[in-house]
Design brief:
The complex is a heterodimer of chains A (157) and B (625).
Chain A (H helix, E strand, L loop, with lengths): L2 H18 L6 H12 L4 H11 L3 H10 L11 E6 L2 H5 L2 H12 L12 E6 L11 E3 L2 E3 L4 H10 L2
Parallel strand pairs in A: 1-2
Antiparallel strand pairs in A: 1-3, 3-4
Chain B lengths: L1 H5 L23 E6 L2 E6 L4 H7 L23 E4 L6 E2 L10 E3 L3 H16 L15 H8 L24 E3 L9 H9 L6 E3 L6 E3 L16 H5 L5 E3 L3 H9 L4 E6 L1 H6 L13 H11 L3 E4 L1 H24 L9 E2 L4 H10 L13 H17 L6 E7 L3 H6 L14 E4 H10 L21 H4 L6 H15 L19 E7 L14 E8 L1 H12 L8 E5 L17 H17 L9 H9 L8 H7 L12
Classes of the chains: A alpha+beta (157), B alpha/beta (625).
Bound molecules: iron/sulfur cluster (SF4) (3 copies) and FE2/S2 (inorganic) cluster.
């Protein structure tokens, strides 16, 4: 990694720590902020967070690995998560899943070559009455059909 | 700082704890409870587990360990508490009200059995091919609860690859039951922070930062996690197969040096109570196994004292007499390889404070393949030098690239107490029955000062016995040479001796109060280093640090289990052996004198001794690339 890039990341973490404080409880909001901006929390950033909160890097990694919405490897620019829980499954999630995979040419857990989209499953999005449901970055889409899902994907930059 | 410190350990791992009253006679100081219909009175805040233990009621445990904070993650210790809807984990339940407890109801027994069955359903391993066979808490529990079939299935294939990257610690997560004792050991007891639970649910495993191999993260190889693991998931890197080969090879001259702590601990592997020194028996057993020479590491412990003590006096001379402000004081001891790696990672900017003297193990290695090889006319290439140590970090230490002062690998193998006990058993020997015998010449005698290196405070005590006498010409002013302030298991000890009536060449030390600090366990080392960083150690001269709680006798290669009580007994054995010796000061060891007269003729800290007996350190830092 370039030294310059490192410094700017350090500065970023420093300002987050300044904002959220150095208690252990500040860890999650800091991780979320980094995740939001970079779509992942790199090993360097995790160690910087650990250093500034005076905890061990492996503790940060433990938390990142615990939460499905935090990543430690680079992701696509957009993250698409399809709900795989039982209500959405019964409402036709399988057809949507296959259509989406075909359209993007990747399977769940992968990222498109152009880094545009990372495709994942999610567990219950709380939209059981309106399934199948999908979440694109922070926005939720419901009552999906294969066509509707593909249209949504095509609009993502 | 104080409030922050409370949160060092993840809050999730510090469940509800109620402090016990200082004086249980105060009103409300005790609570009367009923355990299995029997009334007992316990101090407020006692956990159900403690209360039961005190009343001879056995409760099974797995995640609980007396050295560690409570976790309450395994649930095998559940009991029924009247009025509570669910079973309660007895290790995390502080008694604050007159509860009624039942420890062996059908519900309790069924729940425990289910938990054991569930643990076994995810446990991959065969007991006969496992080094913890007959010393495994999971196995014991399965027997205790009469497990005769796998009610919830059993793994047919391993789920994880064994991590053999480290020279010291091998991790086989297929045998892990996720009790997190290792996590608490590494984070809480040692403050190194290598291990944590990674992922979630069924995918949870204990791992390192980014699941890297152990050799690539900042593990200090202390092996404390091994000593506290209830199963065989963690073990030391065992060289005994290669060693057997060397012993069988007639061309090889296999020599072994034995450190004092394994001698004080190895009896436990043969079913003896802790606290028996087996030095003489061990010498005989080692010869019967086929070692060509058996030497005493204490000899080079004495040498270490000469080198390290002289180094300290040199530093003091520069600082006090010549007023050199660049001299690094206090001087820190360097014989604990776990501590050396700790400071290299966490405090590389303070490496100058570390004594450059090698550890006794490495000094011995260098002496054996040079001086001993020459004196006995053996080609050093044919010598296999083995070190019996209480320590897993010694395995890493002997593999350091700089530890080749003789032109060969100075120490070929670091062997732990556990591994040697296994070899002795394999050879068909029952150690306690062995006749006693002495070490081999020419390093046959060592002083009690070298012996007490095994306990926290021992290096300091040994050094003081010598330094004080070198400077003043008189014995240290402590009864029986027992420098009591150095002893005991308090985390950080501070004391001092007044230097009075100094000899002429040390007159610059007249009236100086020699101050020293003794710390054990790297969590305490960290506290000392923070004091150093803040400039609070300006008037301290010498600091002894050992990486393991209790010192070497609590090392990561010692018999399992470990507890403060066991460590105390081992310490008593070591101090008793010291008192029984007539030779108790390093500088009076005739072999030490001999080696300075015939080999290291320029004396301690000379050029040759620097080449053979001193080393340099690496600024490792803590960034994990
Ligand atoms: S860890 Fe214990 S239960 Fe598992 S195979 Fe080894 S001895 Fe048996
Ligand atoms: S050997 Fe020591 S430093 Fe390494 S993981 Fe175990 S407890 Fe932590
Ligand atoms: S490695 Fe051992 S101590 Fe660590 S969680 Fe697994 S079983 Fe427990
Ligand atoms: S021993 Fe009590 S929960 Fe593990």
């Amino acid at each position: 990694m370039l030294v310059l890039e490192k410094n700017s990341l350090t500065e970023e973490v420093e300002s987050l720590v300044e904002f959220y404080g150095t208690e252990r409880s500040a860890l999650l909001p800091i991780l979320q902020a980094v995740q939001r901006k970079h779509k992942y929390v790199s090993d360097f950033v995790q160690q910087e967070i650990a250093r500034l909160l005076d905890i061990h890097p492996v503790e940060v990694y433990s938390v990142v690995s615990f939460y499905a919405f935090l990543h430690s490897e680079p992701q696509g620019r957009n993250i698409v998560r399809l709900c795989q829980t039982i209500a959405c499954d019964l409402a036709g999630k399988e057809a949507v899943a296959r259509a989406v995979e075909r359209e993007l040419g990747i399977t769940f857990g992968q990222t498109t070559k152009d880094k545009r989209i990372t495709l994942e499953y999610a567990n219950c999005l709380g939209m059981c009455d309106q399934g199948p449901a999908m979440i694109v970055n922070d926005r939720v889409y419901t009552h999906l059909t294969p066509e509707k899902a593909i249209n949504i994907l095509n609009e993502i930059k | 700082m104080e409030s922050k410190e409370k949160y060092r350990v993840p809050v999730s791992q510090k469940p509800h704890v109620v402090e016990k009253p200082r004086d249980i006679n105060t009103i409300g100081g005790t609570v009367t409870i009923e355990i299995n219909e029997k009334k007992v009175s316990v101090p407020m805040g006692t956990t159900i587990l403690e209360a039961c233990r005190e009343n001879q009621i056995h409760i099974p445990t797995l995640c609980h360990h007396d050295d560690l904070c409570v976790a309450g993650v395994c649930r095998v210790c559940v009991v029924e508490v009247e009025g509570m809807r669910t079973l309660q984990a007895s290790c995390t339940f502080p008694i604050t009200a007159p509860v009624k407890i039942h420890t062996s109801t059908p519900m309790v027994r069924k729940a425990r059995r289910h938990i054991i069955d569930l643990l076994l359903s995810e446990h991959y391993g065969e007991c006969y091919s496992c080094f913890r066979n007959q010393n495994c808490e999971l196995q014991k529990l399965a027997k205790e609860y009469g497990v005769d079939q796998y009610n919830f299935g059993h793994l047919e294939k391993p789920r994880y690859e064994t991590d053999r990257s480290s020279a010291s610690v091998i991790r086989d997560m297929n045998k892990c039951i996720l009790c997190k004792r290792c996590v608490r050991t590494c984070i809480d007891l040692q403050e190194v922070g290598v291990l944590e639970a990674i992922n979630r649910g069924h995918e949870t495993h204990i791992g390192t930062f980014f699941d890297k191999p152990l050799s690539d993260v900042i593990c200090i190889n202390c092996g404390q996690c091994i000593n506290r693991c209830p199963t065989a998931a963690l073990r030391a890197n065992d060289p005994s197969d290669e060693l057997w080969e060397a012993i069988e090879n007639p061309k090889k001259h296999v020599v072994i040096q034995t450190a004092p702590s394994p001698r004080a601990g190895i009896g436990e592997e043969f079913g003896l109570e802790p606290g028996h020194s087996m030095t003489g028996e061990l010498n005989t057993a080692l010869r019967r196994i086929g070692f060509d020479r058996v030497f005493d590491t204490n000899f080079t412990a004495d040498l270490t004292i000469m080198e390290e003590g002289t180094e300290l006096l040199n530093r003091l001379k520069k600082a006090v007499l010549l007023g050199d402000e660049s001299v690094k004081l206090p001087q820190f001891t360097s014989c604990s390889p776990g501590w050396v790696k700790f400071i290299e990672h966490f405090y590389p900017e303070f490496l100058g404070y570390l004594s450059t003297a090698k550890s006794p193990q490495q000094m011995f290695g260098a002496v054996i393949k040079t001086f001993y090889a020459k004196e006995s006319g053996i080609d050093p290439a044919d010598i296999v030098s083995v070190a019996l140590m209480p320590c897993s970090a010694k395995k890493f230490e002997c593999n350091r690239p700089e530890m080749r002062a003789s032109g060969y690998k100075d120490v070929d193998y670091g062997l732990t107490t556990r591994e040697l006990a296994q070899m002795i058993k394999e050879a068909g020997i029952y150690l306690p029955e062995m006749p006693k015998s002495h070490f081999d010449e020419p390093f046959g005698d060592a002083s009690g000062a070298g012996l007490i290196f095994g306990a926290t405070g021992g290096v300091m005590e040994a050094a003081l016995r010598t330094v004080y006498e070198l400077v003043t010409g008189r014995e240290v002013p402590f009864k029986n040479l027992n420098i009591v302030p150095c002893r005991g298991f308090e985390g950080i000890k501070q004391a001092s001796v007044m230097l009075e009536g100094c000899k002429d060449e040390y007159s610059f030390l007249e009236g100086i109060e020699l101050k020293f600090i003794v710390a054990h366990g790297t969590a305490n080392a960290k506290k000392v280093m923070e004091m150093l960083r803040k400039g609070e150690l300006k008037d301290v001269h010498f600091v002894e640090i050992m990486a393991c709680p209790g010192g070497c006798l609590g090392g990561g290669g010692q018999p399992i289990p470990t507890s403060e009580e066991i460590r105390k007994k081992r310490a008593e054995a070591i101090y008793a052996e010291d008192e029984s010796l007539s030779l108790r000061k390093s500088h009076e060891n005739p072999y030490v004198k001999y080696i300075y007269e015939n080999f290291l003729t320029e004396g301690p800290c000379s050029e040759l001794s620097h080449h053979l007996l001193h080393t340099h350190y690496q600024k490792r830092g803590k960034f994990i690339a």
